[in-house]
Automatic annotation (TrEMBL):
One of its GO terms (molecular function) is potassium channel activity. This is Voltage-gated potassium channel. InterPro entries: K_chnl_dom, K_chnl_Slo-like, Volt_channel_dom_sf. Residues 145-218 form the Potassium channel domain.
């Protein structure tokens, strides 16, 4: 009985059947719904139903986490992975409000669960032509959105309740975008020494990474051009020869005609 249950669970999490892929798509939908819930509930005081929903989400994450550990062949290695540690923190952050919101701010790390969806890339290539044609741009957009969300969530978690200018997630997002784009209107600022240090961190590390991700998004490093000899589709923008077979490729470039 136990071996049968383990085999069925392993097939859902690691298999290649249509049922397994539908199950992983459902997990992706749950992750996205969770993130939307975190954003929406930042705009109002948490009534009892929000606390109950927090607990339910935390228990669902616990069930998912327990199943992943159960089917993992290298349990110790799995438990020490950064994404697994993010899962543990997420569970605590959703359940913690019952103990007085002590770890409530850690719920922003639930966003890192998006990284788990990268295992669906091969299936996404098969199921969606749009994804297959614009994979690099879509991945860059996902990375950019995850980065902005984590940065905004960190600012909101650390400043909400102590900074009157950060009243909800939208205020934190506004500060994040104006900082990352170096616009800096100055109508929202982070207060105190900790706020200034956080601002320095966002400017020092965030601006560089933001610009890099934005560059990949709007000017991908790879272009689609089918090699006439081997059929390779992705090449460097300045490629003269196909990396796979060495044949000459004629990729159109920007500039004067």
């Amino acid at each position: 009985m136990a071996s049968t249950f383990h085999a069925r669970l392993s097939e859902l999490y690691e298999g290649s059947s249509d049922r397994a892929h539908r199950f992983r798509y459902a997990l992706l939908a749950f992750d996205l719904t969770t993130i939307l819930f975190v954003i929406v509930t930042s705009f109002f005081t948490h009534p009892l139903w929000v606390e109950i929903t927090d607990l339910i989400v935390g228990l669902l994450i616990l069930m998912d986490f327990s199943a992943r550990v159960y089917v993992s062949q290298r349990k110790l290695h799995y438990l020490t992975r950064p994404s697994t540690l993010a899962d543990i923190v997420a569970m605590l952050s959703f359940i913690a409000p019952l103990a007085g919101e002590g770890l409530g701010f850690l719920r922003i790390l639930r966003t890192l669960r998006l990284l788990h969806t990268y295992q669906l890339m091969n299936r996404l290539r098969q199921d969606f032509i749009l994804f297959r044609k614009h994979e690099e741009v879509i991945i860059a957009a996902i990375n950019l959105l995850v980065f902005i969300f984590v940065t905004t969530g960190l600012i909101y978690a650390l400043e909400h309740g102590r900074n009157p200018m950060i009243r909800n997630y939208a205020d934190a997002l506004y500060f994040t975008i104006t900082t990352l784009t170096t616009t800096g209107f100055g109508d929202i600022t982070l207060q105190g020494t900790s706020g200034r240090l956080l601002s320095i961190g966002v400017m020092f590390f965030g601006v560089t990474l933001f610009l890099r991700l934005a560059q990949v998004l709007f000017r991908p490093s790879k272009v689609r051009y089918e090699c006439e000899s081997c059929g390779l589709m992705l090449h460097d923008a300045d490629a003269v020869h196909c990396k796979h077979c060495g044949a000459v490729v004629h990729i159109g470039t920007e500039g004067l005609n």
